[in-house]
């Protein structure tokens, strides 16, 4: 029998009738909990955002590459991008065919590029030297090129991947050199791609970048696909009523551009997008137990077991994640107060929320850290020799299934080789 729990705050109907306090007890904390229904819905939202028929959504697996998660994405008819041989490997294990995988590497070694070529996936290069490397490895082959359209966007300068200050993409002024290399190695340019950065909440930069990319596309009459990139944002500040991205409006604007381009180009190419966050962020909540409540210099600190080894976004980008409080005990309080929620890592920057007004929190409460499905587990680490957490999925059929085991102490020694003579 589910013990009744107090949803001390309630901004999200996420747990599908399951009790987060019971989930935390059964699977222990910290715990990534995924909601399959929301994941499927986000996939469908994007698939249906334009009327243009040859439109493919490549889920960007760097946001979340859990095997079961990818299986759901595959079953929704999406394809995927990949950033490394490791992502290709897991995507193949999740059932994606080679032609459904687009390898968009950056500063890739010859060995890694060979891995992608041997795997039969589409490959994009984003510098002249990488194009030359591809030509040497696969003369006569098919390749795609990532351009820098000159317009970037993102929630933090660290995640803006186009424009003047980035290492990504090739500037269009190098098109003559590109042509020389294509000719030298008898390569066919089958696609061009871009990605302007992660998390935009309005479409201006994205549509401007598409206009720039389409101008580049017109210079290559034999393209099979044009990939417009990802970056679609989600509202992390839901309790402040932050508006979601207007996907319909953005879809309509893109649609118009795609149809216009098709008329001018003279045939339909496949248009792709490669969103990660939009699909994965809102379908996960991290459950974390509060192990300590204390005052330091009149500041109240709530100490939980979700350190930045579990969720790196706050320390890395000062990112905001909503926090809910669930309580299994009888403790009652109507009070709210500003608190600083911290993890258990040995750094003062290990802060999940600074001076956040939350309901009074007690030791033993369970925190729900919202919108954690994108760049959550994929950026988790073993810092301080902490174990990376378990992941469970709330299935649409009501089941709760474990989709990744919590690491064990032995995992920490797995790849270490002790000295023999000491
Ligand atoms: C090349 C590339 N494609 C797609 C993405 C996905 O971005 P987002 O999760 O913001 O949609 C990224 C990450 O910024 C990326 O670097
Ligand atoms: N990791 C970043 C997004 C970067 C996406 C990869 N290019 C974040 O959490 O917001």
UniProtKB/TrEMBL annotation:
Its cofactor is pyridoxal 5'-phosphate. Residues 35-373 form the Orn/DAP/Arg decarboxylase 2 C-terminal domain. SUPFAM superfamilies: Alanine racemase C-terminal domain-like, PLP-binding barrel. GO terms for molecular function: diaminopimelate decarboxylase activity; pyridoxal phosphate binding. Pathway: Amino-acid biosynthesis; L-lysine biosynthesis via DAP pathway; L-lysine from DL-2,6-diaminopimelate: step 1/1. Keywords: Amino-acid biosynthesis, Decarboxylase, Lyase, Lysine biosynthesis, Pyridoxal phosphate. Belongs to the Orn/Lys/Arg decarboxylase class-II family. LysA subfamily. Specifically catalyzes the decarboxylation of meso-diaminopimelate (meso-DAP) to L-lysine. This is Diaminopimelate decarboxylase.
């Amino acid at each position: 029998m589910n013990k009744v729990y107090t949803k001390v705050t309630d901004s999200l109907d996420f747990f599908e009738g399951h009790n987060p306090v019971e989930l935390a007890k059964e699977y222990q904390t910290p715990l990534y909990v995924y909601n399959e229904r929301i994941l499927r819905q986000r996939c469908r939202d994007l698939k249906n955002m334009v009327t243009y028929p040859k439109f493919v959504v490549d889920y960007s697996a760097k946001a979340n590459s859990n095997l079961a998660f990818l299986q759901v994405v595959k079953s929704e008819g999406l394809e995927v991008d990949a950033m490394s041989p490791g992502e290709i490997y897991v995507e193949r294990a999740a059932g994606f065919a080679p032609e459904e995988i687009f390898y968009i590497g950056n500063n890739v070694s010859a060995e890694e590029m060979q891995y992608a070529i041997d795997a039969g996936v589409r490959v994009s290069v984003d510098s002249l030297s990488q194009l030359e490397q591809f030509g040497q490895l696969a003369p006569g082959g098919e390749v795609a090129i990532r351009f820098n359209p000159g317009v970037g966007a993102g929630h933090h300068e660290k995640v803006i991947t186009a424009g003047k200050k980035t290492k990504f993409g090739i500037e269009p002024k190098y098109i003559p050199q590109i042509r020389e290399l294509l000719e030298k190695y008898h390569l066919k340019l089958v696609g061009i791609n871009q990605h302007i950065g992660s998390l935009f909440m309005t479409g201006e930069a994205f549509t401007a970048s598409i206009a720039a990319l389409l101008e580049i596309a017109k210079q290559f009459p034999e393209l099979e696909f044009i990939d417009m990139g990802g970056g679609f944002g989600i509202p992390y500040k839901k309790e402040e009523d932050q508006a979601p991205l207007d996907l319909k409006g953005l879809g309509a604007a893109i649609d118009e551009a795609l149809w216009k381009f098709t008329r001018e180009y003279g045939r339909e190419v496949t248009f792709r997008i490669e969103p990660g966050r939009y699909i994965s962020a809102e379908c996960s909540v991290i459950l974390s137990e509060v192990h300590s409540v204390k005052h330091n210099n009149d500041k109240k600190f709530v100490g939980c077991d979700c350190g930045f080894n579990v969720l790196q976004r706050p320390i890395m980008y000062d990112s905001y994640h909503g926090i809910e409080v669930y309580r299994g005990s009888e403790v009652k309080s109507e009070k709210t107060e500003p608190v600083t929620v911290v993890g258990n890592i040995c750094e003062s920057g290990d802060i999940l929320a600074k001076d956040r007004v939350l309901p009074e929190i007690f030791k033993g409460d369970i925190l729900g850290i919202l919108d954690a499905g994108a760049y959550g587990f994929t950026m988790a680490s073993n810092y301080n020799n902490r174990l990376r957490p378990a992941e469970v999925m709330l299935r649409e059929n009501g089941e709760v299934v474990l989709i990744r085991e919590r690491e064990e102490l032995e995992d920490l020694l797995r790849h270490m080789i002790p000295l023999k003579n000491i």
